[in-house]
Write a structure and sequence with these properties.
The complex is a heterodimer of chains A (254) and B (485).
Chain A lengths: L4 H15 L21 E14 L5 E11 L3 E12 L7 E14 L2 E12 L8 E12 L3 E10 L4 E8 L2 E2 L4 E12 L11 E13 L5 E12 L1 H9 L5 E12 L1
Antiparallel strand pairs in A: 1-2, 1-13, 2-3, 3-4, 4-5, 5-6, 6-7, 7-8, 8-10, 9-10, 10-11, 11-12, 12-13
Chain B lengths: L33 E6 L11 E6 L11 E10 L4 H10 L11 H11 L1 H14 L15 E4 L8 E4 L6 E7 L6 E4 L5 E6 L2 E8 L1 E4 L4 E6 L7 E7 L5 E7 L19 H5 L16 H4 L81 E10 L4 E4 L11 E3 L4 E8 L5 E5 L4 E3 L9 E2 L1 E4 L4 E7 L4 E7 L2 H5 L3 E6 L1
Parallel strand pairs in B: 3-6, 5-13, 14-17, 16-24
Antiparallel strand pairs in B: 1-2, 3-4, 6-11, 7-10, 7-12, 8-9, 8-11, 12-13, 14-15, 17-22, 18-21, 18-23, 19-20, 19-22, 23-24
Helix pairs in contact in B: 2-3
Classes of the chains: A mainly beta (254), B mainly beta (485).
């Protein structure tokens, strides 16, 4: 895993920025505490931790993780998505592992920027690259949770992604969650099976039950399709460009 | 309580705090009587029960008589660490709300109100990214509501003899919960608010905001038990006790009401037709003048929560030469005639702020020399709460009152939650339209979208806390220091 050292430096700087507190401006005698002390908060969550069974191809363990630490305005995020395809003799792969500085820029929106890594987890089984990322995460009107990001790789390749999901409450604990992911790229990168233009669209639906607010097992299904050059590359390697699958997993908030 | 600044007990403002193992003796002249309470002002200790009643008996005769009295202290208890409650609020919106709208509510509304109205209402809330069921941040899903430290099943009992007049001193010492208090079968006569006597108001029910106190008189004629029922404002639970001639008795526990949806208060009163934009068809031209709609939270909120306009006709701006309202007049945009969300005024007689009337005018008869306007603000999604958009950590200094000045404090609630705003050290004379007889309070409940005002005599030199008395709102930054010098 070749996540470079500069990540550490960048992240350290961000963490100090988020710890810095504004002066409360109240001239109490020395030794008196501030009447209200703000503390940093943090959370970590597997939005999806699931076993995926595609109609064609091999089963996979899939994760979609995000954690943050910081104040109301400044936060550090770690985000990761990836999968371990079962029985392919290879270790798990990070589709993304990102370290981001995040700043609240509007009531419902955070501007995020940082660095990311794509490649094997503890192995050299997969192609690797690092990239810089700028994104916007928040809630759109009509309560659609949104994450859009633009990535520029160490080779100068540009790509973009959009994720949106919505929670429809069926009962106080049962929810239906439609979800979509769209990937695009400005350059063809054959090693990652990425073509120019629209790469892929994935639409899913999950039905979950909140045993507690923090633990919610779910089942679901998805449909995905690749487009353009991306689809051509997939076809050339003998794989299908469109398919459906079912998933079973758990949403975990730590 | 009116105390010397060093005896007010707020760490960082009155003193350094009381370290573990240390003893601190509060010494203060008693300059008032009535029903009050005390609590820790350190961190989140109030949530773990550092709370108690503080009753000062009157030296002179009070304007009402009674045969016996009971103190009823309402609190909200959780077995969770308050720090974890705060973290849950900070990191997950709606964590404790298990009364959110579901598909079933949607279809029920379609049957009741028709498809297009229902969809329009849902569209509006969804567009705002808010929940109309956001009545309480922390609910009965973690709280047990206590009365004198006892859970409802324990049935704390207050004794009486038939024919006696009983004074109940009701204190809301909870961290986060508003209660609606009633005693089915008995009329209650409100005789004091926040410890200060008011002209008697007979009611069936009253809403008590966090930190408020009300004294009521009841006269049970029959040799039977009565349930004292304090339902939480979001209907997720209740505290209960029994008023009985003998121990071991109990009466029927009333059925809990359903949680209300926000935005319905105004509609119920018929002042608004449809929720689209600004529809003030229920109000006259004159009433519109002087209403400040710019104070609503976000452009999407226009038209909501403007309420029934109860008494608005009487609220025609009575301005003085300097452009300020005459002392004691209700602010345009106030809703003193409404008890608030989830209460049906037609069902029973409910106390409203407009009912509160002092016996005699308070000593300082001056009009306000200036007005100080503060907006109550917040970001629900992130659980950030503030005054004028600034958390305590973001302000650059205290709010300054000139010693002995008379000023008007105007509070404008830009949020969708009620906020009980509490000022230490000085009384707030709530300008509820009662002219010279406006009541004196230490905590003012400001309803969503409402604009209220109070007159203050800045006679207490020193530094004082000023904050929302919802514990986790205060902790999140809805706190200021008022400096009188």
């Amino acid at each position: 895993m070749k996540i470079k050292l500069y990540l550490v430096g960048v992240s350290a700087a961000f963490i100090f920025a988020s710890l810095a507190k504004a002066d409360d401006g109240y001239d109490a005698p020395d030794g008196w505490p501030s009447p209200i002390v703000e503390h940093n908060q943090g959370t970590a969550q597997f939005d999806r931790l699931e076993y995926s069974i595609p109609e064609n191809g091999k089963d996979a363990m899939v994760w979609d993780f995000q954690g943050w630490y910081g104040s109301d305005v400044n936060r550090m995020y770690v985000k990761s998505e990836g999968e371990n395809i079962q029985g392919d003799g290879e270790d798990a792969e990070f589709e993304s592992l990102e370290l981001l500085y995040s700043r609240l820029i509007a009531d419902f929106w955070e501007l995020q920027g940082g660095v990311g890594y794509q490649g094997g987890v503890f192995s050299d089984d997969h192609e690797e690259r690092t990239y810089g990322v700028v994104g916007l995460q928040g809630v759109m009107p009509y309560e659609i949770e949104t994450d859009v990001a633009l990535q520029v790789s160490d080779e100068g390749d540009v790509s973009a992604s959009f994720e949106g999901e919505y929670d429809l409450r069926l009962t106080q604990r049962l929810y239906l969650q439609p979800r979509t992911e769209i990937a695009m790229a400005a350059n063809e990168v054959e090693a990652f099976g990425v073509g120019e233009g629209l790469n892929s669209v994935r639409v899913g639906m999950r039905l979950g039950y909140e045993v507690t607010r923090r633990v919610a097992p779910y089942i679901g299904a998805y449909w995905e399709k690749e487009y353009g050059e991306t689809a051509d590359l997939t076809r050339a390697s003998g794989d299908r460009t469109e398919g459906t699958g079912v998933v079973a997993g758990i949403r975990l908030i730590l | 309580m009116i105390l010397p600044p060093g005896m007010d007990g707020v760490p960082g403002i009155s003193f350094a705090g009381i370290a573990p193992g240390e003893t601190f003796t509060y010494r203060f002249p008693v300059r008032q009587n009535g029903t009050y309470w005390y609590h820790s002002h350190s961190g989140l200790q109030e949530q773990v029960g550092h709370v108690g009643p503080l009753i000062v008996d009157a030296a002179e005769r009070e304007p009402f008589r009674y045969d016996r009295e009971h103190v009823l202290l309402l609190t909200d208890w959780t077995f969770e660490d308050p720090k974890s409650v705060f973290r849950n609020l900070k990191t997950m919106e709606g964590y404790y709300n298990f009364q959110e709208r579901t598909m079933a509510d949607f279809f029920a509304d379609v049957r009741r109100k028709g498809f297009s109205d229902t969809v329009e209402m849902r569209r509006m809330w969804s567009k705002m990214r808010m929940s109309s069921r956001d009545i309480a941040d922390v609910t009965g899903s973690t709280y047990t509501y206590l009365l004198n430290g006892r859970a409802p099943e324990e049935n704390w009992t207050a004794l009486f003899k038939a024919g006696e007049r009983v004074r109940l001193r009701v204190i809301n010492g909870s961290a986060m919960s508003y209660f609606d208090v009633r005693i089915p079968g008995l009329k209650m006569t409100v005789v004091a608010a926040d410890g200060q006597p008011v002209q008697p108001v007979p009611v069936d029910e009253f809403r008590i905001g966090v930190a408020e106190t009300y004294d009521v008189l009841v006269s049970p004629e029959d040799d039977q038990a009565y349930t004292i029922f304090a339902e939480s404002m979001d209907r997720s639970g209740y505290a209960r006790a029994t008023l009985a001639p003998r121990d071991g008795m109990q009466a029927e526990i009333p059925k809990r009401r359903q949680i209300a949806d926000r935005g319905m208060e105004g509609m119920a009163a018929g002042a608004m037709v449809g929720m689209k934009g600004m529809d003030h068809s229920g109000m006259s031209r004159d009433d519109m003048e002087g209403m400040d709609h710019s104070n609503m939270s976000g452009g999407d909120m226009e038209g909501m929560d403007h309420g029934s306009g109860d008494g608005m006709a009487k609220e025609k701006a009575k301005t003085r030469e300097n452009g300020m309202l005459v002392a004691g007049e209700a602010q345009p945009g106030s809703r003193y005639g409404e008890a608030g969300i989830g209460i049906d005024p037609d069902e029973r007689r409910v106390l409203v702020y407009r009912d509160l009337k002092a016996f005699t005018p308070w000593p300082d008869r001056r009009g306000p020399g200036r007005e100080l306007e503060l907006h109550l603000t917040g970001n629900m999604e992130r659980y950030m709460w503030s005054f004028d958009g600034k958390k305590f950590s973001e302000v650059s200094g205290p709010i300054h009152f000139e010693k002995d000045e008379r000023l008007r404090l105007i509070l404008i609630n830009d949020t969708m939650m009620e906020h009980p705003i509490h000022l230490h050290g000085m009384w707030m004379e709530l300008e509820n339209g009662q002219g010279e007889l406006i009541p004196r309070k230490h905590t003012l409940n400001v309803k969503p979208g409402e604009r209220v005002s109070a007159l203050i005599t800045a006679d207490a030199e020193g530094s004082w806390a000023f904050h929302c008395h919802l514990l986790y709102h205060m902790e999140a930054g809805m706190f200021r220091v008022v400096q009188v010098s």
